[in-house]
Design a protein that fits this description.
Layout: E1 7-11, H1 16-25, E2 29-35, H2 40-44, E3 50-54, H3 64-69, E4 72-74, H4 78-90, E5 95-96, H5 101-107, H6 109-118, E6 137-141, E7 151-153, H7 156-163, E8 171-175, E9 180-189, E10 194-207, H8 216-219, E11 229-236, H9 244-261, E12 268-276, E13 282-288, H10 303-308, H11 315-328
Parallel strand pairs: 1-2, 1-4, 2-3, 4-5
Antiparallel strand pairs: 6-7, 6-8, 9-10, 9-12, 10-11, 12-13
The structure holds adenosine-5'-triphosphate.
Amino acid sequence: MGLRDFSIATLGSHSALQILKGAKDEGFKTIAVCKSGMVKPYQAFPVAEEIIEIPRFEDFLTVEQQLIKKNAILIPHGSFVAYLGVEKVKGIKAMYFGSKAILEWESNREKEAGWLGRAGITLPKIFTNPKEIDRPVIVKFYGAHGGRGYFITNNVKHFQERIKLHKGEQYVIQEYILGVPIYVHYFYSPLNDEVEIMSCDIRYESNVDALGRIMARDQITFEKFDPSYVVVGNKPVVLRESLLNKMLELGEAVVQESKKITPKGLFGPFSLEGVITPNQDFIVFEISARIVAGTNPYIAGSPYTALKYNEPMSTGRRIAREIRMAIEQDRLHEVIDNDHAGRN
Ligand code: ATP
């Protein structure tokens, strides 16, 4: 079967434009599954050969049979997993690029911490008992997209006042790390057994990033204001070169450790999300086991991919390249997670 016998499909949101552009550049047919009323970008930018409309993102599975018939390979992204939920994603029968088993480790804070900790990664200290709070902490609510309601405190009294407003919500109390929040984007190729750094970004978040534009004197006038971390966009950043060695080591360690928790381990794109301190330590507060939207500034490639590839290489295109190599080497089953992979 040739490349044009396959389609690359994803949900029209998050990093879909990048994924579909990359798939097109690698020679695949492309499909955007869009929510009605959210189709315009996928018509305006000619990266999807076909657009399938669904009423809500949650209705994605109603078009699954159609996608299977088209030999579509699904590429998950952040919105894909957020709208469908881990259980539905695990039940997907269409060809799916990536490791489904790893989603459970990524979406469960304890499992995630165990995995990263065993990989030698430093995580912010977690306070299970609020009475032990002895430094600035950030209180994060589970499933609170965009960090709505997160608050910062440094003592149990203030913590108890604030937590009253969040009755019944699950949360974690995490040491607040003062430094620069950085998102490092990786790609692990199971075909080449190589971890690549694709790019890095800084998020621009509303309204927390507006604070620096107001003097402390004026900030006080916003007494009742609650910071939120809703991502508005992503800014490119290039790390100082002396950090790259450590970042590569950390990426490799996470992949190695992932192979101990599930047979195939983590593969494809992933991101380590953390804070770089003045001592140049990278304290990781989260891993995303899939393409992150912070790769979007690099549709034409990043400074790192320019060093490795003599052509524009986005993370989206790198995914399609891996699938293309797998098809050409008759190893598609190694990058596809489901029952249908064996049939080609
Ligand atoms: P996502 O949408 O990626 O799941 P989220 O928006 O729910 O995440 P986080 O990414 O965990 O929440 O945190 C939101 C923001 O808070 C981050 O972008 C970062 O700037 C900051 N942050 C998170 N954890 C810490 C920490 N331990 N110390 C300092 N800053 C932090």
